[in-house]
């Protein structure tokens, strides 16, 4: 979805919800478009109906269920989603963040995940985690043909198939149950001076709990997050980092995360986002050449 299309959806959704979109500011445009409405102290998230994670409507019910159990989650401002054309819109409380303070520490995320994984399964319809579904879907689309040459598409197809085969044969040490699905540090927000909340529950599903620990490892491996932060994350979760790195699932899930991150860049590159196209091809080159894969990736 282009920024122009997302704004059109935003305006229509705000009219339906009785919110003022005149001062709307685009905060993020990746898998979802995220807009800030300063005068309403609200954040509007625009996603696609074909999203294969948790349905957006169910995501609202899930966050309410988690909040009732004292899990620190972002607060929805509406009890239902708004459907506009092929998009689904949800409205959330805005949590102002200080640039001077930076992201919440990884250890806070580790503590939240430890509590999350100790909960019983929510009384909602949660689907099995769909590994690499976004990537495998987009690889067959016109968008991928526009921005990837045949050799890169073939490599991605083969690599995804290999990893999916290995994923299906994994034995989880932590167990298969309710997971967040995408709990990377960027999904954590400060709520006041001390409390940290976890947002973006669209990927909530049933899967190996190891999946929830991989994004922080990936943040260290590919984006240069400090090793000590990762150690503190695992300490808060209740597991030794060095032990986790030796588990058979680690290499498979890290490699899957590598490919998972490409999906949004393919979509944005196809919408003529030149910076996204450069980063997409940079990451592909690094993944295909092990001698360069240790260089830090760039976030968008």
TrEMBL record:
<keyword id="KW-0808">Transferase</keyword>
<protein>
    <submittedName>
        <fullName>Phosphotransferase</fullName>
    </submittedName>
</protein>
<dbReference type="InterPro" id="IPR002575">
    <property type="entry name" value="Aminoglycoside_PTrfase"/>
</dbReference>
<dbReference type="InterPro" id="IPR011009">
    <property type="entry name" value="Kinase-like_dom_sf"/>
</dbReference>
<feature type="domain" description="Aminoglycoside phosphotransferase">
    <location>
        <begin position="31"/>
        <end position="245"/>
    </location>
</feature>
<dbReference type="Pfam" id="PF01636">
    <property type="entry name" value="APH"/>
</dbReference>
<dbReference type="GO" id="GO:0016740">
    <property type="term" value="F:transferase activity"/>
</dbReference>
